[in-house]
Amino acid sequence: MKWLLSILFSLVSIFATAQFAPQAGISGSTAISATASEIVAWATKCSVQRGYIDIAIPSAGHTSTGDSSAATGPANGTVVCLGDSGIATLSFAASLYDGPGADFAVFENGFKDPANPSMAFLELAFVEVSSDGINFTRFPAISNTPANTQIPGSGVYMDASLIHNLAGKYVATFGTPFDLAELAGTPGLDIDNITHVRLVDVIGSVSSHTCLDNEGKIINDPYPTNFPTGGFDLDAVAAMHIHSASISNRDNEPLRIYPNPAKDILHIDQVSTSTGLLCMYTGIGNKVAEQKITGKQTSVDLTQLAPGAYYITLTSDSGTTQWAGNFIKL
Ligand SMILES: [Ca+2]
Ligand SMILES: [Ca+2]
Ligand SMILES: [Ca+2]
Asked: Which residue segments constitute the domains of the chain, with CATH numbers given?
């Protein structure tokens, strides 16, 4: 009888621990590939507030590897390293909304244990969203990774199935998905008009400067990571559900894109003259063209472009005003 109980107990332990989706590549994973067709846009702006190389030794300074531009555009392996408690705030060419399933995904540069594909070296970050750029709401994060032994800055692999609603759960080239529906009903948050996504590095120390999950448990992740590349390494943020903003910007100044669909040439008219940069992307966010804008009317040659759906962004020289629009190339 004792052996039976012991078997039952170990089965219960297995089910109690493997609670969430497993690592990318394992059946049941919710990881989103950087080339997935549901990705329709990538973050276009990012600002970073660096964290410490080691928060216990502030005099050692802040992390320095990468800069905020590494986090815009498609996931490509270039990263900005946030450091202990570092923060990155991102926005898109238009606001995000709550559609079916996951609405955006965060890409980090974790890597798998060569000996066990379900385990990986992971660095984690809290994820917050805002619909006004001022008030942010954090996704309810869960970490069931035991916190009795500190995971060091290298050499120890983690089980993604113990982690939920923390960016960095999945290895490089796979995004961790977030579903805005989970935040429905939050006062002051409009989940159908999300203007900003924010990442806050999980320090990961189990003894001091601890970070807690939504249940008050200590989150154990690599610490200290006392080098210039320390902390959460942000590669990119992808949108699956983004408002199409073909005729809008924050000043309600019209931007006209025609014809749509277009075959050989696309015209872009602005009501007022302002100089800036026009960028054209494929549906998965690969930049295919870039052109300076110097007047009210701009034309883009499409003859070299493969047929399909594209989106464009227009950024003023000051970088403060953006338009976005979609069109179909025949
Ligand atoms: Ca959703
Ligand atoms: Ca950490
Ligand atoms: Ca990148």
From this structure: 18-239 (no CATH), 255-329 (2.60.40.1930)
Count Cβ neighbours within 10 Å for each residue of 27-42 and write b for 16 or more, e otherwise. Answer: eebbbbbbeeebbbbb
CB 170: neighbour CB atoms within 10 A? 29
Q: What is the reported pTM?
A: 0.74
Q: What does DSSP say about strands 196-201 and 87-91: parallel, antiparallel, or unpaired? A: antiparallel
pLDDT digits (tens, 9 = 90+) for 242-257: 997 543 343 444 466 7
Give residue 135's Cα distance to chain centre: 19
Ligand nearest to the CA of 178: 1
Mean pLDDT in the chain? 88
- CA distances from residue 97 to 94, 135, 193, 202, 235 in whole angstroms, order as listed: 10, 17, 5, 26, 22
Give the percent of the chain with pLDDT over 90. Answer: 67
Distance 130 CA to ligand 1 centre (A): 15
**How far is the centre of ligand 1, averaged over its atoms, from the C-alpha of 111 (Å)?**
27
